[in-house]
UniProtKB/TrEMBL annotation:
Name of the featured protein: Flavin reductase
Gene3D superfamilies reported in the protein's UniProt record: Electron Transport, Fmn-binding Protein, Chain A
GO-annotated biological processes: pyrimidine nucleobase catabolic process
Entry keywords, A to Z: Oxidoreductase
Keyword Phosphoprotein: no
Flavin reductase like domain segment(s): 10-150
GO molecular function: FMN binding; riboflavin reductase (NADPH) activity
Pfam families for this protein: Flavin_Reduct
InterPro entries assigned: Flavin_Rdtase-like_dom (IPR002563), NADH-dep_flavin_reductase (IPR050268), Split_barrel_FMN-bd (IPR012349)
UniProt cross-references to PANTHER family, sorted A to Z: FLAVIN REDUCTASE (PTHR30466), FMN REDUCTASE (NADH) RUTF (PTHR30466:SF1)
Length: 157
């Protein structure tokens, strides 16, 4: 099967949008990702998938920690900034939780230490042990078939 067919099939799975953040040598770094899931309640573990060509791969390998920032519906521009879709130079605003940079006003900031990692094809799967969580009210930013979206008002009961 060709790569486009596979990508199209994976695009049929609607997801939320996250920005993965970490810090290395005093500098905050982030990348947009939708490959995120919870893994375990005891211990509290989550999983992210980072491509072998992503600059973030080495940064997480070196720092040993990361945060998953689940974006709110009004944060599409934040996602686009960290996905490299906004070309003009902009500085992102970060808050900090347990000395890890996090995205301001995200629906959730989930701060993790790397628990384990596994190379899988052209990605590395990082399992993170959750150290802290901050939650906010709001609606999620969604991603489906390569496009941003949000839940309809009636779906947020």
């Amino acid at each position: 099967m060709d790569d486009r067919l596979f990508r199209n099939a994976m695009g049929k799975f609607a997801t939320g949008v996250t920005v993965i953040t970490t810090e290395l040598d005093g500098e905050a770094h982030g990348m947009t990702a939708n490959a995120f899931m919870s893994v375990s309640l005891n211990p509290k573990l989550v999983l992210i998938s980072i491509g072998e060509k992503a600059k973030m791969l080495e940064k997480i390998n070196e720092s040993g920690k990361f945060a998953v920032n689940i974006l709110a519906a009004e944060q599409q521009e934040v996602s686009m900034l960290f996905a490299g879709q906004i070309k003009e130079k902009r500085e992102a605003e970060f808050d900090r939780i347990q000395d890890v940079p996090v995205i301001k006003d995200a629906l959730a900031n989930v701060v993790c230490n790397v628990y384990s990692k596994q190379v899988a094809g052209d990605h590395t799967l990082f399992i993170g042990e959750v150290q802290d969580i901050v939650l906010r009210e709001g609606s999620p930013l969604t991603f489906f078939e390569g496009k941003y979206g949000q839940l309809a008002e009636g779906q947020l009961a």
